[in-house]
Every structure is written in C-alpha cells, then in structure tokens.
Amino acid sequence: MITVNEAEKLILANAGDFGAEIVLFEESLGRVLAENIKADRDLPPFNRVSMDGIAVSYKAIENGINIFQIKATQAAGDVPIDIYEPDECIEIMTGAALPASLDTVIRYEDIEISDGQAKLLISEIKKGQNIHTQGADKKQGELILTSGQLITPAVISLVASVGETELRVKRIPRVVILSSGDELVEVAAMPSSYQIRRSNNYMVRAVLTQLGLEAGMLHIPDDPEVIKQQLQLCLQNYDVILLSGGISMGKFDYIPQALKELQVKQIFHKVQQRPGKPFWFGKHDNGVVVFAFPGNPVATFMCMERYFIPWLNTSLNVSPKQTVYAVLDQDFTFNPQLEYFLQVKLNFSEQGQLLAMPIEGNGSGDFANLVDTDAFMELPLEKNEFKKGDVYRIWPFNQI
Fold first, then answer.
1. Full-prediction pTM beyond 0.90?
2. Sign of the CA dihedral 137, 142, 146, 152?
3. d(Cα 80, Cα 386) in Å, to the nearest integer?
C-alpha cells in the first residue's frame, strides 16, 4: 500500500500527450490552447476615448481658454475630425478614435453646453485624461496568450480582437466509464430490495462534462469473460478507462485479474487513504491508462477530484492552478493511520479567512452528504488530532 503523495507522483508520471487539433475560435470554450498568440496590431489600436464629452488641445487649457466652440460630433467608428483653431473642440463619444490634433478629453459632467459652445465647469484638468492610449495594453507582435492556457470567455474575446478565427488546441483524450456489479440496475428501473440504481457512472460523466469531456458509458456484469471482453474492446477504442467498483477483495471482484490477463500493467493497488483505499491504477503498453476506483460513491468522487483531474491537467499541459488551503473551523479526530479526505462546508470569516466546517457523513457510501459539502480537506496520516484553527489543503468541488 502506498501513500497519497506516492500515488499522485506515479499518476502524474504517466500523464499522456494526445496531440493537438484545429478548431474554430467560437467553439473553443473550455479547451486548452496549444499555441502562443501574438497581437496583430497595437491594443488598443488607436488613442481610444474612454469617456463621453469633448476633446480639446491641452495647450488651449494652459493658455486660459475655458469656452470652446464645438466644431463637430464624432461617434465611435467615425473618421477622426481634426481642429485647427485653439478654441475649437470636438464633441466625442466613448470608443471613438482621438483626432491627432487633440490630446485631452473632458467629461460631459464637467462642462456646460449651450448654443454650440462648451464651457468648462472645473479648473483642474490633466493632459491626456480620459484616453486609453494606443498600445497601452499590448504592442503589435507582443505575446498575449501562451500555450497551456484554459480558453475562457475572456480568452475568446481576446483572440477575436486579434483576428484569430481558428485556434490550435490540445486534443482531449477519449474516455469511457465502466460500472460493474449485478446489484446495479438502470436509473429508470424499480430496484428490488437487494439492488440499487446506477449513479456512480452518471456522477463521473457529470464531472467530465464540467471539464469539457464527452465520455462513453458501459455497464458490465459480474462475469469474468464478459468483463475481459469489454475491457479488451475499451483498450482498443479509448485513451482512458474509468472503472467504478469490482476492484476490492471480494469474491466477485474480477476486474484486477482481467486487467492482468489483458496485459495492463498494475502501477499500484491500494492507497493509504480514506475514502478510496482500494484504488487501482495501471497502464497498457499501447498507452491506455486505467483508473479503477472503489465502487462507493464518495470514494469514486474523491478519487476523480484528487487524482484524475490533476492527471488530465498535466496531460493537457494546463497551466497549474493555485493550491487552495482553508482553516479547520472545528476540532476533528480520526484514528486510523490513513490520509483522510474530510468533507467540509466552506465559508468566509469577517476577516476574509476561508473556513472549513467538517460535515461528517455515514462513510464512503453516503453520497447524499456530498450535496451539502463544498470540498475535501486533506488531513495528513501522521496525525490523529486536528484542531480548530489548523490549516490544511482543500480540493474544492463546488464554487467557493
């Protein structure tokens, strides 16, 4: 049995590279950029007016002029209109390109307009005010996005602004979810008194959907031959196999043996943790990785958050996210020498501290408890007593 940190290192050491593909930029949300993007021109591309008002030459202000003749009105997108007399101004709108003969914008709130004239109501005016100067954000040819960035709505806006109609993105792995067990029936079925409805596979697929992955889904009975046949097909058609159940020490847990017969190399089996101690991880010579999670829902969910998502991010070369820590908000005791993933509810204190309140359930089969929690707090196996005010790493699965 290995530790959580050892399991993490082994999993990340077996991250894959699934290549790249070209997609339309408007269809790239949630994907991972696989190229650097540069500005095709200055951003902003001209001296951009940032307030509605009038544009003047600051030299006129220095010379004591406080009443200006409005020569014209210029909207955003209009050709810039220059002035040639010191006491002239242009009524100008936000987003317009500042004419070359003008260098200062005064807000409507600071002027009084009457009979084609604009009178200043304030004396304190700074040269260049209310102007977003050309190239202030990025210069032409400057790097604006780097490979490994997750494509968010803000990224899509930025690539559109520099004319990138297509993007090179990391290809996502082909994933299949396998559930097993004769005690599991379809969601729409009425289970007998000794059966339960399948839910783990739908939970796993929901996690993958949040990550932008589509996944196949199969259920296999407790039959060694069928298990081996289905696993063989999956090894031929997918990059990742996610299994839930059938990997413990039970008489009908046939999956580890089937994987062995199919020449999937076991990298580890069992981790010094709760929930999820029976977790199995391996890899086939063709590069297919296999995550075989315990069948208990909380264990499956925790292993997805703690192990699969970091593996996926490493495989896709996603820029690492900041590690999150929280303050334990109540004393807690856990005696077994296992790394414990405590379910917690998150809140902020008045001082801005992230607080984690333990929400104990009824073991790794208590999936209903997940609905009322926000994260797993990773408690080290070297300790048994965890005091209020202690700080530990958390793995959030709901918005903080």
1. no
2. positive
3. 67
